[in-house]
Amino acid sequence: MSETTVPAHSTTTSAASAGPLTGRARGARAALRAVQVLLALFFGVASALPKLIAHPTAVESFGRIGWGGGAMYTIGALELTGAVALLVPVLQSVAAIALSGLMAGAFVVQLTAFDGQNAATPLILIVPLALIAWTRRAHTADLLRLLRRR
Q: Residues with Cβ < 8 Å from 123, sequence gap 6 or more?
């Protein structure tokens, strides 16, 4: 086993327990963190904010699919919550899974209500979200341990 891997039965997931990281592993970790920050910015600013401030384009889109303002604000709040959670270590994996679910729904809506216009965007976003969910999956175990203590 290399020095950058942690046994599956390990009870801790901190970086210190994994041993010293090689330059390559450190670079991969930094790149993944950068992707998380970029996705958080996208979901928080470019996607959630127009919904939460009732930007005319968001209002028109939700009106076109017949969902109205309530759904627009709800989805905006979910996206903003997911964006923030992507930056919280113990919530990263769960946030990526939840945002992937929202993107799956967005894909279906794009196909059905908008005739496939921009349908690729949610699918493209699912790829890095799935990578985050997979690589940060140990944090889900940490979250479950925290919840069980209560």
A: 103, 107
CA distances from 145 to 5, 53, 68 (A): 21, 37, 39
Per-residue pLDDT of 20-70, as tens digits, reads 778 898 999 999 999 999 999 999 999 999 999 999 999 999 999 999 999
CA 4 to chain centre: 25
Can you tell me the distance from the alpha carbon of 97 to that of 105, in angstroms, rounded to the nearest whole number?
13
Q: Which residues contact 41 (CB under 8 A, 6 or more apart)?
A: 83
At 89, which amino acid appears?
Answer: P
Q: What's the CA gap between 37 and 18, in Å, rounded?
A: 23
Its pTM stands at 0.82
- What is the C-alpha separation between 107 and 94, in angstroms, rounded? 20
